[in-house]
């Protein structure tokens, strides 16, 4: 019985071959086992290391491959938003195309192949720093607005910027139809964008402010990620001739009205140059003390006023000017149009112009005895040549 049991066990475990045959199948099985267990020679390295915290938003993330080439790198935050980048050096490394957001956890998955096509993969997760000091960009025009052909996209930063190139990379502007749009810095806290010439009517502008995580100055980071869209409306460019004391209003290149005006009197001349309407006020107070003119005037109910400069230049309704309109210049530098007190008569010249104007429309002043307005005094960068703007 013991002999029978031994025979049965041998028969069950032997695989039907005692090993006395040719051995072809046995050798083949051995080669297959060796191929399956051979490891890829490629080595993938991810910086920063897995679990790293307080990682810098720029310059810290890099993926490299040794003894092989990178074939895939995927980086995304916990919401699944991808980080764009590209493999360079023939597969040797990968770096992100832009900075990372602050206070954000990222996951990295990278794959490389060795010369025999065998894959090696690595994964890592890390969290970027939480900044102690931050800034934002206060911008105009507003999202969803329709503006005139002279409207730049202007951003004023709450902290002075010492790394302007990084800020410029973080702001993307796309237009339909396409047009070249360039930025220009006024000081270290204001960046304006415009095309070479006035916008074409109907242009759609999309601005991406990817400032979250940008180090604008040492230790000070942006905390803003926003998309702003605005549309260019009909073209309206009005020209004020100080000598003739008339304003010609052109809509889409055609004259639609000529209006008598009064501008700055001797010693208070109105600026020359191209000025953009930046604010519209149905009624406002104008006090000479706010612009360095002492107590020369204080009018509490100026109607139909539109700002042309930061320094206090307006084109506005005037109900106290008598017969000055079209006859002589009597203002302290503003452009006055006849109006009714309270602006109740919407057919009066100032009311008519106010009701047909939008932020971004252009008012050009010529033949004044004063100089051309500074390009950063208001949204008036059009007074700078394209060569200087892009220098």
From TrEMBL:
Gene Ontology annotations of biological process type: cell wall organization; peptidoglycan-protein cross-linking; regulation of cell shape
Residue ranges, compositional bias (Basic and acidic residues): 24-33
Keyword field: Acyltransferase, Cell membrane, Cell shape, Cell wall biogenesis/degradation, Lipoprotein, Membrane, Palmitate, Peptidoglycan synthesis, Signal, Transferase
Highest taxon above the source species: Bacteria
The UniProt record lists the keyword Transferase: yes
GO CC term (a single one): extracellular region
Pathway connected to this protein: Cell wall biogenesis; peptidoglycan biosynthesis; Glycan biosynthesis
Annotated stretches, region: Disordered: 15-40
Domain L,D-TPase catalytic, chain residue ranges per copy: 236-366
GO MF terms, alphabetically ordered: acyltransferase activity; peptidoglycan L,D-transpeptidase activity
Keyword Cell wall biogenesis/degradation: yes
Active site, UniProt feature: 316 (proton donor/acceptor), 334 (nucleophile)
Stated name of the protein: L,D-TPase catalytic domain-containing protein
Organism expressing this protein natively: Streptomyces dioscori
